[in-house]
Amino acid sequence: MRKILTYLVLFLLFAYQTDSQSIEQYLSAPFPTDLTASPDGKSIAWIFNSEGERNIFLAESPNFEAKKITNFEGDEGIGLGELSFSPDGKILAFVRGNSRNSSGEAANPAQLQENTDFKIHLIDLTTLETRYFSPGSTITFSPDGQALVYKIGPNVYWKSLSDSSSQQERLFVSRGGSNQLSFSPNGEKLAFVSTRGDHSFIGIWDFEQKKLTYPETSLDKDSYPAWSPDGKQLAYLRIPNINNLLSFTAIKESNPWSIRILDMETMKAEEVWNSGTGPGSVVVWDLPAEADRLWWTPSGQLVFPWEKNGWMQLYAVNPASGEVKHLTKGQGIVEKVKTSYKKDELLLTSNIGDIERRKIYSLDLNSFELEDLSEKGNINWSPVRLEKGLAYLSATATRPAWPYIRQNDSSEPLAEEFFPQDFPKTLVKPLGLDLQAEDGFKTRAQLFLPPNHDATKKYPAVIFLHGGSRRQMLLGFNYSQYYSNAYALQQYFAANGFIALTLNYRSGIGYGMDFREAENYGAGGASEVLDLMAAADYLAARPDVDASKIIPWGGSYGGFLTAHGLAQAPEKFLAGVDIHGVHNWNNDIPVFDSWYEPEKFPEMAELAFKSSPMAYVENWEDPVLLIHGDDDRNVLFSESVELAEVLRKQGVEVEQLVFPDEVHSFILHSNWVKAYEASIDFIMKQIQKP
After folding, report:
1. From its phi and psi, is residue 435 left (phi > 0), alpha (psi between -120 and 50) or beta?
2. Alpha carbons 402 and 29: distance in angstroms, whole number
3. What is the fold, at CATH topology level, of the domain defined by 172-283?
4. What's the CA angle centered on 112, arms 108 and 118, to 5 degrees?
5. Which first-to-last residue range defines the signal peptide (predicted)?
6. Does an H or E element contain 681, and which?
7. Where are the alpha helices (H) located in 17-152, listed in sequence order?
8. Are 225 and 202 in contact (CB under 8 A)?
9. Contact criterion met (CB below 8 Å) for 221 and 257
10. What pLDDT does 5 receive?
C-alpha cells in the first residue's frame, strides 16, 4: 500500500510540475525604482533591488553606461529611495532606512543590531564618495543648491551643504504635521501643508524674516501648493472635509473642491476654478499618484487632474478668463504626472489607448498637444526627459521591469549585464477576458494557460486577487514590485501545469470612476465578492479545468477576498492562501480612519461586519494557509490570529507562516521567496490529496 501511495505522489508531481525552475529564479531579476534625471538632463540615476540587495546606479551622457555607485550588501531589509539631484547636478541625495510603527519602532525584519531609522546620505558625483548627512527623509534641495530641507518625524529641518560644520536646525514650530514642502523659485520662502486632522492650512516660512504665516486659513483641507514660475503667485487646492465616511466605501459626489491663487504681494487669495457638483466633485487622493496636482504653464495657465467625465484626466484653466480645456481624452486614466527639466512639458503615465497596460505621453504646455512616446504592446512608466532623449522603465508579458533609454528614435535597455542569465524563458502571454457577475457587473481578468496547453486535459486552477483595492493588474509584469512578484508566481503556476486567472475586480483603478466606486463595494457591502464567484464559475465551466481544484490566493485586499470566497462558497474552492488579509472591517478600518469607533456608529459597524469574511466564517470548511508579518502597519496582525482561532475551533485545517518584525509589503526578499514557496507547497499538497 505504501508503494502504491509513493507512486501516486510521484505521478501527481510529474503531472502537475512540468517546470524545473524554482520560484526564486522567477523573482531573481533586479527590480528598478526611483528613476530620476539631473536638472540638465545629462545624467540619470535609479535603484535596483536585486534579491533584496538595494543599490543606486548612475548613467551619464553621452554613452549612458550604467555603474553602481553605492555598495550596500545583502538582503538586509532596509529601504532605499528618494533620489534627488542637486540643482547643479553634482550631488545625489538619497534616503536609506525604514518607517516607524505606532510604537515608534523602525521596521527591522532582519533583526539587525543597529538603528534602521531614515537617514539622509549624499553622493559627490565627481568622486563618487558617499557621506552621511543627517537623520530624516522627505528631502528638498534649496534652489541655489546650498542647503537641504527635510523632515524628522512631523517637523521640518534645514542644514547647509557647503558648511560641513553646520548643525541641523528646526526651521519653525508648527502644530500638526508639515508636508508637501515647496521652495519659491528664488529660495526666499518655503510653502508647505500644515495637516491638522479634518483640516489643513497652507503655511509659508520666510527665511529672511524667520517668520511663519498662514495667509488664508479655512475649515477645509488646503493642499498641493504650486509656485508660479516668477514666484509672484501660489496656487493650491481647497478640498472640503468629508465627515464620517468610512474608507473602502464608494463615493462619487461630494461638496465641490476648488483651485485658489494667492497673490504674494497683497497676500490675498481668490478662487479661479470650482469643480461643481456631481461627477468630479471628489478629489481622489491616490490618482494621480505623485506629489503634485497643479502645474503652471509658461503662459500662466494651470493644469490639473479632474474626473468630470468619469476618468481621471488632465485639464487646464486660464485664471484670468476661467476658460477650461480638456487636455487628455479617450477611455483611460492619467495615473502619474512628472515635470520635465525642459519646463514646458509634462510627462504622463496613462492607460489611454491601451487600457490593460501603461503608456507614456508628453504634454506640451504651450500648445497642449500630446505625443505618444510608448512602444506598442509594452508597459511603460516613470519617464524622465534627457538632454537628447528619454529614459523610462518598461516591461512586457515575458520580461520584468527594466530601465531603458531612447535616443535618435532607438530604444535600448540599460545595465543589461545585470539581468540574470537563468531567468525563466518559458513565460506565456496572458489572454484578456471579460467576466460578468451575477448582478450584471462586468469585470476584467487575465488568463495564463500552461505552455503546450492541451485542451483535452483537466488542469487545476488558481485565482490571484490583488490588494488595494485601488490597483490594476496588467497584461504583463507590473510597475509595482509587490505585483510584479505576484505576476511572476502566476507565471510559475502556468509553467507547472495550472490554469492561472488574475482578476481585476470592481473597486480597482484603470477602468474609470463607475468601476472604481462600484456600488456597495468594500465595507459598504463587499459586492466585489460577486466578481470572485464569477471567476470561479468561469473556470469551473471550462472543459480544461478540474472544477474540484480551484484555489484563490492574494494579499491584503486579495486576502480579504480569498477569505470571503472560502467563507461564503466553500463548495466552489478546494483551499486558499490568505496573505495579510482583512477579516473584520471594524477591527482594521481604525488603522486608516482614526475617528472611527464602531460602538459610536452602530449602523456603519453592522454593515461593515456584514461586509467582512468573519460574518460568514461558520460556513468555512476549506484548508487555508495564513501568511503575515507581525509588524504590519496596514492590516492588523491580530486579523490572522483571530481568524486562526475561530477556524481551529471549527476543525478547519489551518497552516501558517509568520515573519517576525516584517511589515505589510515584505522588505526582505527572502520573505517573499519563503511566502511563495510555502504557497506553492501548500497548493500542491491540496491538489494531490486523494
Report:
1. beta
2. 9
3. Neuraminidase (2.120.10)
4. 55
5. none
6. helix 669-687
7. 23-26
8. yes
9. no
10. 41
Beta bridge partners of 656: 626
Adjacent-strand bridge partners of 57? 46, 68
The pLDDT value given to residue 1: 43
Give the separation between CA 572 and CA 8, rounded to whole angstroms. 25
Could you tell me the residue ranges of all domains in the chain?
Answer: 172-283, 431-688
Contact between 279 and 252 under an 8 Å Cβ cutoff? The reply is yes
**Cell triple for 127:** 568622486
Residue with cell 545585470: 418
Q: For residue 555, what is the enclosing H or E element? A: strand 545-555
Q: Identify the residue whose cell numbers are 514666484.
A: 231
d(C-alpha 578, C-alpha 561), whole Å: 9
> What are the grid coordinates assigned to 12, written together?
501527481
CA distances from 636 to 582, 625, 629 (A): 8, 17, 9
DSSP state of 106: B
- Which residues does the chain have with pLDDT short of 70? 1-19, 164
Residues whose CB is less than 8 angstroms from the CB of residue 424 and which lie 6 or more positions away in sequence, other chains included: 19, 21, 25, 26, 491, 495
What sign does the CA torsion over 560, 109, 401, 516 have?
positive
Residue-level length of the chain? 690
What's 431-688's CATH class?
Answer: alpha beta
pLDDT in tens, 552-611: 999 999 999 999 999 999 999 999 999 999 999 999 999 999 999 999 999 999 999 999
Contact 567, 616 (CB under 8 A): yes
Angle CA(526)–CA(528)–CA(478) in degrees, nearest 5? Answer: 125
